[in-house]
């Protein structure tokens, strides 16, 4: 009986110790969890601050005739005083779009006809909308956000890509083959297969587009088929030229000219012979 009682008491003591250990572990876990939650919140604040504080210029490239939205900040402060977008185009007067919260007014300076507007209500969305993008929209876009605590700034450099509207491959009468990509931005790159004796000329226009023309000697290609590759950031083009067919056409035209000359000479000789006989007959008469 005593032995049974001792074993029961010993079992209860073990269970009590186990429960005590579990309670201590749970208490320590909650303490650790509470401590780790504070650094987590601080870390999130640091990340938001880094996202809001942009020091570098962000490069943005868009194709002409498309829409673009520029975000002022990746975060949205609850309180702000004023937001200002300043646009510095490459060859035009700077444009300023601003919104002042306390008076709920917007103001634009030198922005008429630029097709640059707020994406939506500026008190809720600081983004700028350009629709559609033209080559004149290229430049720097600076957003300044004033808050009660501090000021934030983001800066974009917008580059406008223009696909070459005209591309062609032709064989000239002077014995050259010409591949051309007109008025692209940036300048297109031209390469040949097979390689030949070629030179490339670039012409920059007033609107900053570039026409590229590559000229090759026709006889420098050791193949009947010639391929011109036009590479551009907006897309690539491939043009083909059957050198043999064009050469055959050229030689055929040259042969025709030779036959025309021969017939002309023959006609001239016959005419002289006729008039000579006519003079002899007249002298005999």
From TrEMBL:
Recorded topology in the membrane: Single-pass type I membrane protein
This protein's GO CC annotations: external side of plasma membrane
Domain annotation Ig-like: ranges: 164-247
Membrane-spanning ranges: 253-276
Key word Transmembrane present: yes
Molecular-function annotations in GO: signaling receptor activity
One matching Pfam family: V-set
Lineage top rank: taxon: Eukaryota
Family membership noted in the UniProt record: Belongs to the CD200R family.
Descriptive protein name: Ig-like domain-containing protein
Lineage: Eukaryota, Metazoa, Chordata, Craniata, Vertebrata
Gene name tied to this protein: CD200R1L
């Amino acid at each position: 009986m005593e032995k049974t009682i001792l074993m029961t008491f010993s079992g209860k003591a073990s269970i009590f110790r186990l429960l005590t250990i579990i309670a201590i572990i749970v208490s320590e876990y909650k303490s650790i969890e509470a401590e780790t939650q504070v650094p987590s919140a601080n870390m999130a604040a640091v990340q938001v601050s880094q996202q809001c504080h942009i020091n570098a210029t962000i490069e943005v490239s868009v194709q002409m005739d498309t829409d673009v939205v520029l975000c002022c900040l990746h975060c949205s402060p609850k309180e702000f005083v004023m937001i200002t977008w300043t646009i510095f185009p490459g060859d035009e007067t700077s444009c300023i779009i601003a919104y002042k919260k306390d008076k709920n007014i917007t103001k634009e300076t030198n922005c008429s006809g630029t097709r640059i507007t707020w994406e939506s209500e500026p008190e809720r969305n600081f983004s700028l909308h350009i629709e559609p993008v033209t080559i004149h929209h290229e430049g720097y876009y600076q957003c300044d956000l004033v808050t009660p605590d501090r000021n934030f700034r983001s800066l974009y450099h917008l580059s406008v890509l223009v696909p070459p509207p005209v591309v062609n491959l032709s064989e000239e009468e002077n014995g050259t083959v010409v591949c051309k990509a007109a008025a692209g931005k940036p300048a297109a790159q031209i390469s040949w297969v097979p390689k030949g004796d070629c030179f490339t000329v670039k012409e920059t226009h007033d609107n900053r587009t570039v026409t590229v023309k590559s000229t090759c000697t026709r006889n420098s290609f050791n193949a009947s088929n010639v391929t011109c590759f036009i590479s551009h950031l907006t897309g690539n083009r491939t043009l083909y030229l059957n050198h043999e067919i064009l050469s055959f056409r050229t030689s055929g035209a040259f042969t025709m000219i030779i036959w025309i000359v021969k017939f002309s000479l023959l006609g001239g000789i016959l005419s002289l012979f006729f008039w000579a006989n006519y003079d002899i007959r007249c002298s005999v008469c």
